Amino acid sequence: MPLYEIDGEGLRRHDAARFAALGLYERNDLQRLLRDDIAVLSPDLLVIAEEFGNWEDSRRRIDLLAVDKAGHPVVIELKRTDDGGHMELQALRYAAMVSAMSFEEVVTTYEAHLAKTRPEDEVDARSELLNWLDVSDGDEAPIVSSDVRIMLVSADFGRELTTAVLWLNRFEGMDVRCVRLIPYQIDGRILLDIQQVIPLPEAADYQIRVGRKVAEQERRSSDNRDWTRYHIVVDGQLLPDENKRRAVRLMLEKLVERGVPAAAIGKVLTPGRFRPLKGEHHTDEEVRAALAEQYEGVDVSRWFTEHAFVEDGTTWIVRKIWGRNTEPTLNTLRDAFPEAGVSFQRAR
User: What whole-number distance in Å separates Cα of residue 271 and Cα of residue 269?
Assistant: First the structure.
């Protein structure tokens, strides 16, 4: 795609150049430039390795390995060709290989990278990574996500590659991006146009949501379980849809917020679903301990201990598992306390 320069009263055309014709190479030039200024691809990346291949029985190397602010490893593959070759297949292999990295392995990898690229700087790799991930030294070591992002960087991308990337991005947890680098030589200067083409930045969030919705619909169609979701409605206003267990908990929360006593709800729901605990317990740990002590043999994990209702010396907790009782329970709560103005409806 050409660039046009406004030149006097007309437009001056500048055609795209080729990296090979400019004497620019993948490893010695493009990789080095992006390594030193990775923010041109995405501002949330920290490069932790170059030519990374820390696994047995493999001579393959990841061009650049980064981590983002959320703790996802990011595999970055570079090509200077016009079709991207088979870089998506390479990147998928690499993503699988780094998906099990621990934080300690990331620290070791980054230490080696700093020793090569900033040998004169006194930089503590662990501290820099903790700061990047916004974690304090005293906190537990952060968990490195097993969901690996992929960035494919090339002069252009062929139809087969783009079709594969669009298909991969339909699956939940997949984040594959294509960034196009187009060089121009203008008046002896080399300019580089860097654009993310898949997904388009302005449509990225939308495409991710659509992909998740499609994945959920396909999962439901192949599963006999009831995946119905519900909106809790307060004074006619629909709240975001929730799954069954969270819908019941949210309805109880809104009823209590609007003045319905938890004890009154306890008369409508059975103790097997809405259970009282003696005493006032405010933290998750306190509630879990009280539940285990007062109901011998109870499976604590089946109760919303982190969302307890404390009232007049009693703590009330709601069960997580509702199954086919979800909608009858929501109906019961709505009909029992109509003055609260809390209702529900199925999500479409």
Answer: 7
The rounded distance, in Å, linking the Cα atoms of 195 and 172 is: 24
Residue 137 CA to residue 135 CA, distance in Å, equals 7
DSSP 307: S
Separation of first and last alpha carbons in the chain? 43
CA distance 187 to 181: 19
Nearest Cα to 73, choosing from 100, 93, 51, 33? Answer: 100
Note the pLDDT tens digit of each residue in 213-242: 655 555 555 555 567 889 999 999 999 999
Parallel, antiparallel or unpaired: strands 149-154 and 176-186: parallel
Torsion (CA) 17, 21, 25, 26 in degrees, nearest 10: 40
- 41-50 in b/e form (b: 16+ CB < 10 A) is bbebbbbbbb
With the C-alpha atoms ordered 188, 189, 190, 195, is the resulting torsion angle positive or negative?
Answer: negative
Determine the distance from the C-alpha atom of residue 297 to the mean position of all C-alpha atoms in its chain, rounded to a whole number: 37
- Per the CB < 8 A criterion, the answer to whether 322 and 225 are in contact is no
125 contacts: CB under 8 Å, gap ≥ 6: 107, 110, 111, 114
What's the pLDDT score for residue 253?
Answer: 94
Stated pTM of the model: 0.58
Between CA 151 and CA 39 the distance in angstroms is: 13
DSSP string, 228-264: --EEEEETTEEPPPB-HHHHHHHHHHHHHHTT--HHH
Q: Which residue has the tokens 């659509």?
A: 210
d(CA 123, CA 255) in angstroms, rounded, equals 54
Give the integer Cα–Cα distance in Å for 234 and 309: 19
Rounded to 5 degrees, what are φ and ψ at 277?
A: -120, 140
